[in-house]
Amino acid sequence: MSKLSLFLALVACTCVRAQDTLDLSLSDAIQRGLDNNFQIRIAESQLAVAQNNDDYALTQKYPTITVGLSPGVGYRNQSNPASIVVQSTTTSYSVAPIVQLNWVLFNGGRIAINKERLETLADLSKGQLQLQIENTVQDIIDAYYTAVVQREQIEVRRRVLALSRDRIEYQQVRREFGQGGTFDELQARDAYLSDSTNLVVQQVNYANAVRNLLQLLGEETLDRPVDLTTELTYEETAYDPADLEARLLASNRNLQNLLINRDLAALQTRLIETERAPTFGIGASTSYDIGVQTGTQTFEFGGDQPGREQELPGIAARTLAGNVGFTASYLLFDGGNRRVRIQSARLEEITAQLDYQSAQQQLRTALQNTTALYANQTRIIGITQELIENAERNLEIAEERFSGGTINSFDYRQIQLNYANAEFQLLDALLNLKQTETELLRVTGQIIR
Q1: S-S: 257 plus which of 127, 129, 135, 204, CB 3.0-4.6 Å?
Q2: pLDDT digits (tens, 9 = 90+) for 73-83
Q3: Which of the 8 DSSP states describes residue 176?
Q4: What is the β-pairing status of strands 316-329 and 308-311?
Q5: What is the dihedral of CA 319, 320, 321, 324, to 10 degrees?
Q6: Cβ–Cβ under 8 Å, residues 132 and 447
Q7: Could you give the CA distance from residue 301 to residue 311 in angstroms, rounded to a whole number?
């Protein structure tokens, strides 16, 4: 190794050590995701809005009180020879505060229905948050174990690479003693270089898997070193299909949200139907008007008497007024608009019910398929474990025979690859089983316990 390469390697090692490694178990990853995931935070914000809107203040239950003020300035210049006041120049100043009250006493029960609708919307937002949490937990579990499998595949690649390295050294020793040739050594080096490339690619795959996991957790630093401390283990669970289906119908979040949508459609129908009832209310207002006029007026009384000019005294005129009224109204005819909207609302109710029934049927079918898949995958794991045991034994025998010269390098290489493929098959089978189990828990509402 050159001095420059050694220096760069030391710098890289120093940088890795300088950045703290994150020890991350599966439970820690789930907790971090629930705290930081942006989609969950958005759903929480939407829930806060819906809960804030769940208030009688938005249902017209309470009266409205309006306060107003109307100041004004006016100017008037009047000339009328036929009047005693032949000339008048005035400026008026006025201010008129007013208070108005309007209160709907009855509108067909719309207040209660609106309040129930706001409560239902808050429940729907809560259900959407719960659904987002369940989906996020499932994504985190899948991403976590995917990264674990990618890491374990690195170890398999390293073991295969070590075997290839031993094979090169063995061929070099044979060549030194005149028992092997350059061709055999080149074949061993080709296998070693191929395994080295596979190891580098696998390391990149692992880095990408960790980066995807950190992104789901809402981490800002996506290249942070991570130590995944939860192992991917095989624990077969006997699931009862009838129990799973009962849990699906009772706890599946998608179905629960569709039921809430059905309730909202029914409330919308009831809300429109309230328009058939009359509306009663009261209204009251009071005002206090203050007006002041300033200016001059010229009086003429006829005959030989001269005209006399007089200034207005600027005295304020005050007027207090108030009224209370009762209102009653009924929509007698609207061209059939109300009838059409009620019919459309009832059709929306039917559509919401059909959406629920369709989703229920689809989820029951998907649950049965997933349950069957889980059972098949457990059998595949058992077969794959036997395959690994056979591949390990076969590899041991092949090493002995290869050393004894009874098999050639091509056969030995194929047995070596069979061993690696068996390891990969087991890891993939374990990951598939874990993902299937996670899906079973999610659709039956058991993923968050």
Answers
A1: 127
A2: 888 887 777 66
A3: H
A4: unpaired
A5: 180
A6: no
A7: 17
pLDDT tier at 396, thresholds 50, 70, 90: confident
pLDDT band for position 184 (cuts 50, 70, 90)? low
User: Which residues neighbour 282 within 8 Å (Cβ) at sequence distance 6 or greater?
Assistant: 101, 102, 103, 105, 324, 325, 326, 327
Query: Does residue 247 surpass a pLDDT of 60?
Result: yes
Which residues have a Cβ under 8 Å from the Cβ of 27 and sit 6 or more positions away?
230
Q: What is the DSSP string of 371-436?
A: HHHHHHHHHHHHHHHHHHHHHHHHHHHHHHHHHHTSS-HHHHHHHHHHHHHHHHHHHHHHHHHHHH
The residue count of the chain comes to: 449
Strand (E) or helix (H) holding 369: helix 337-404
* Residue 320 in tokens: 């207090």
In angstroms, the first-to-last Cα distance of the chain is 54
Q: Kindly report, residue by residue over 104-147, the tens digit of the pLDDT.
A: 999 989 999 999 999 999 999 999 999 999 999 999 999 999 99
Residue whose tokens read 């995807």: 212
Structure tokens at 362: 């689809």
Q: How far, CA to CA in Å, does 192 sit from each of 168, 412, 421?
A: 8, 13, 16
Torsion (CA) 163, 168, 169, 171 in degrees, nearest 10? 120
Q: Classify residue 147 by its DSSP letter.
A: H
- Token pair 């050590």 is found at 17
Say yes or no to pLDDT of 2 above 50.
no
**Helices 110-176 and 409-443: crossing angle, nearest 10°?**
170
User: How far is the C-alpha of 220 from the C-alpha of 425, rounded, in Å?
Assistant: 34
The number of helix segments (H) and strand segments (E) in the chain equals 9, 7
**Beta strands of 25-63 (E only): which ranges?**
none
pLDDT band (50, 70, 90) for residue 93: confident
Residue 241 tokens read as 């299909």
Going by C-alpha positions, the residue among 96, 36, 14 that lies closest to residue 292 is: 96
**CA distances, 10 to each of 13, 226, 408 (Å):** 5, 20, 41
E-strand stretches of 139-278: 226-228
Question: Comparing C-alpha atoms, which of 267, 236, 229, 274 is closest to residue 120?
Answer: 267
Residue 327 has pLDDT above 70, yes or no: yes
Which of 291, 288, 292 minimizes the C-alpha distance to 320?
288
Strand partners, 311: 296
Q: 139: closest CA among 203, 28, 217, 206?
A: 217
